[in-house]
Amino acid sequence: MKRSSVCCLLVLATCLMAQSPVKETFAYSRKAIAGIPGNDSLPTSYFIYVIIQRGTLISVGGVCLRGQRYGGTLQQVDSPVLSPHDVSVPTGATDTLVKRTSDDVYQIEFGEPSGPCPDGSAEAKLAQRYEVVVSLKSGHANWYGLVTKIVPLHPAAAM
Predict the structure, then answer these.
(1) CA distances (Å), 135 to each of 74, 79, 111, in order?
(2) Is 69 helix (H, G, I), strand (E, B) or coil?
């Protein structure tokens, strides 16, 4: 009886330690529309949020966004995360990007791409199936925030 209890405790402890602190990952895009017809070279803005188990120390290893690799930093934000529905015409209407949660919410901030996702890496394999792969580190463990499809937001007019 004691031996089976000890085994159950060991299995339970192992399962609890192996659980990912990443709860959910969200990705949104917002295109900028030019005021001059035919000028479609305006950049698209991306907003990526990761919900992490409260109190977990985490860092970002990188982001693969549509096959391109980016460095990134984490910026903790309050939930809910709201965005104006139409940034060009202030109507007061908002879109909820992340619902209220008791867990920690981070926005991934990234700059210019540093090339394609590295061949043969776990990120590259995941990037074949997901539009967004966020590589996160907690302690000595690597975790991934995955987004199958980036949700487009209402376009913004370029100023």
Answers:
(1) 11, 22, 16
(2) strand
Do 97 and 81 touch, CB atoms closer than 8 A? Answer: yes
List CB contacts of 51: < 8 A, sequence separation 6 or more: 22, 23, 24, 25, 98, 101, 103, 104, 105
Instruction: Give the lowest-confidence range in 9-13, 57-61, 65-69, 88-92.
Output: 9-13
Burial 143-156 (b: 16+ CB within 10 A, else e): bbbbbeebeebebb
- Concatenating the DSSP letter of every residue in 87-131 gives SSS--S-EEEEE---SSEEEEEEE-S--SBPPTTSHHHHHHTT-S
Contact 69, 113 (CB under 8 A): yes
**Distant-in-sequence contacts of 6-12, Cβ < 8 A, 24+ apart:** none
Could you give the 3-state DSSP secondary structure of residue 63? Answer: strand
pLDDT at position 157, please?
A: 75
Output the pLDDT for position 89: 77
